[in-house]
Amino acid sequence: MIDTFLREKYLYWLEALSLLKNVSEGVTSMLGLDRLLEVSSLQCALRVMLMFCQIGKDGLLLVDRVRDGYRFILYFK
After folding, report:
1. Which of 75, 17, 37 is nearest to 9 (CA)?
2. C-alpha closest to that of 41 among 71, 61, 70
3. pTM for this one?
């Protein structure tokens, strides 16, 4: 669900936050999501061992996508 939101509606969400002059709330939300996913990804110490990892390959792609989204909102804030 998070991945779909980031791929399909993230830019619309940022635009709405911008119009409401509340981009800082978006930064806080993305940072919280990044930290939440980071805790999950720490359970998998090495990307090489994805088949034994709880979050798997798709989970690591989501972590990367969230980090990209966080960097994007910080850069264009």
Report:
1. 17
2. 61
3. 0.69
